[in-house]
Amino acid sequence: MLLSILIPTYNRDEFLEKNLYMLEEFIIDNDLVNDIKIIVSNNCSNDNTKSISNLFLKRNKINIDIYHQEDNLGLEKNVLFVLDKAESEYVMTLGDDDYINENYLVETVCKLKANRKIYCVIPSTQTITTDGDILNSGRDLNVNSKIYNKGFNNCLKNSWRGHQISGLIFKRNMILSTYNKNKVNNIYPQIYFVAYNCLKGKTWHFTDYPVKVTEALQEDKDWGYNEDGLISEIFDNYKKLVNITSFQRSKLELKMLDVQTFRYQMYLSKGLSHYLKALKNIEFGNNTSLLTRLGFPFLAFKYLSKSALIKFLRLILGNKYEKTKNKFKSFIN
Questions:
Q1: Torsion of CA 274, 276, 277, 283, to 10 degrees
Q2: Where does the record place the Glycosyltransferase 2-like domain (predicted)?
Q3: Cα distance between residue 302 and residue 323, in whole Å
């Protein structure tokens, strides 16, 4: 088997049902039955996930295994559970309420068959509502597809993109045993998997067909962001990554903090005091490296200054702000 699609799920029966039937159609229509297997782990849901998935299983049209947990394993262990059940050369992680494009699946399978030196595939993403409406947000929507050679530069450029679980593909060999051996323990194991494979082999940043990522309400999630946006959880991956220097580890941490500006927006939206408290938690977090502690205050100040400037310009320009901003962008481009 070339590829296993891993779907850890919890209390999203309608989304899971839509996803399974969509994937079944893609697999059958493109003659991929012998190439792809789906593995689902129902994390002790209390909705109709069990009955819906069992009904789908009875169709017996594609390769699929469905497991029902008697107790909730937690987010991380449920991801590790489906990974442990896989036996294919590659695995794809997919959120139960996120949807891959048919062409993304087909072209990825063809590419992996032709080039086994690719260890990781990372998609672009398009955010949608729970009703499927397109939102004006996403990641790498205007970025060209590119293949990166193995090594630290690949890891630096791409490991932060592992924050979004859906559509990520990586070689399965050794990643779970290495993860356990190095005692990695956080709710973002896919960041470790991406970083590990970027160091081991080539990465294909395949942006032509964005994965549709559902923007779920926080109350619908079985986890929270804590006061630091779970940065400590993310940094645990870099702390446990082997064969990198302390300087490289810090570069990975600062890259994450620099590109994910939504975190600062999230902190500021709750007030300046919350912003400062979040920064303190990041600065002195157990998984924050020494060099990051030295560099992070400059990043935080840069964003705060930029945010204050934008508020000032909005106040001065009023309704003309967006028009002026667009003119400026056209000028510099």
A1: 150
A2: 4-159
A3: 24
H or E, element range at 293: helix 290-317
Q: Residue 205: name the closest of 145, 255, 137, 272 by CA.
A: 145
Q: Which residue has the tokens 């090594």?
A: 151
Note the maximum CA span of the chain: 63
Tokens of 295: 């560099």
**How confident is the model over 142-155, as pLDDT tens digits?**
999 999 999 999 99
Distance in angstroms (rounded) separating the CA atoms of residues 47 and 53: 11
Nearest to 138 by CA among 48, 49, 193, 209: 209
CATH of 3-220, one of 3.40.50.620, 3.50.50.60, 3.40.50.80, 3.90.550.10: 3.90.550.10
Dump pLDDT digits (tens) for 194-222.
Answer: 999 999 999 999 999 999 999 975 444 44
Name which of 18, 6, 12 is nearest 167 in CA terms. 6
- Quote the percentage of the chain above a pLDDT of 70: 88
pLDDT at 242: 92
Q: What percent of the chain is predicted at pLDDT more than 90?
A: 75
| Helix (H) or strand (E) segment spanning residue 267 | helix 262-268
Per-chain mean pLDDT for the chain:
89
For the cut 80, the answer to whether the pLDDT of residue 226 exceeds it is: no
Sorted by where each begins, the domain ranges of the chain are 3-220, 231-332
- Spatial separation of the C-alpha atoms in residues 172 and 187, rounded to whole Å: 19
Choose among 298, 200, 195, 175: nearest CA to 241.
195
What residues form DSSP beta bridges with 224? none
Q: Could you count the other beta carbons within 10 Å of the beta carbon of residue 326?
A: 10
